[in-house]
User: Fold this.
Amino acid sequence: MTTGPGRPRLTNQRRPGQTTPEEILDAAGELFTTKGFAATSTRQIAEMVGIRQASLYHHFPNKEEILVALLEETVSPALAAAGRLADAAAPATVRLHALANYDVTQLTATKWNLGALYLLPELLTDRFEPFRAQRTLLRRHYRQLADQALTEITDDSGDTSPALTDLPFRIVESAIATRADIERGLLPRPENEGAAGLLADACLRALGWTKPMDEIRAKSRALLAETAGGTPLRL
Assistant:
């Protein structure tokens, strides 16, 4: 096995992944979320993969570029889902619930809690501006859906507080800290996989939804299933 032209592995494959970059990202995800970004070196990442440090640089020029790739994995799927849901012919309450459900699921189902990297001070540097822009765009999608949902819930088209329309985005990202507490043993591991649905429910409750959630949940699931195939669902 090789990692590139003239770059033989030190050992057989150690990490999951179809390609060497995927193995590198898996190892870096573990180290960054357990040891910390600053405390992790490219040599340590290479050793976990079983390749030479020089071979790692064949795929990523430095540690920051590895972090860029990992962060992109956390926001791009949700942005794509938000774009599909924005065009769906469904009530905003359903679309907001569906986006929150999808986003929480992808934040909590990954092997490593990559969302915990959002608070790294390194993300304030220019190199991470594209990621910050992506996250800001996702946040804008949430605010727009929340504003539309508020109109449906309250039948009021007046100006709404930015703090209120920002609540769904913040509720969704609370899944990152909750996951960290569970992994540290500070909270019990849930007995079922309903966390995504509960947080999606909370997004609507925070906006004033007081009706039962069963119908919203069913339509949300159906909408996600339909838009995953690229065809918006009409409800």
About this structure: Confidence is low (pLDDT under 50) at residues 1-6, 230-235. The first helix runs from residue 20 to 34. The chain has ten helices and no strands.
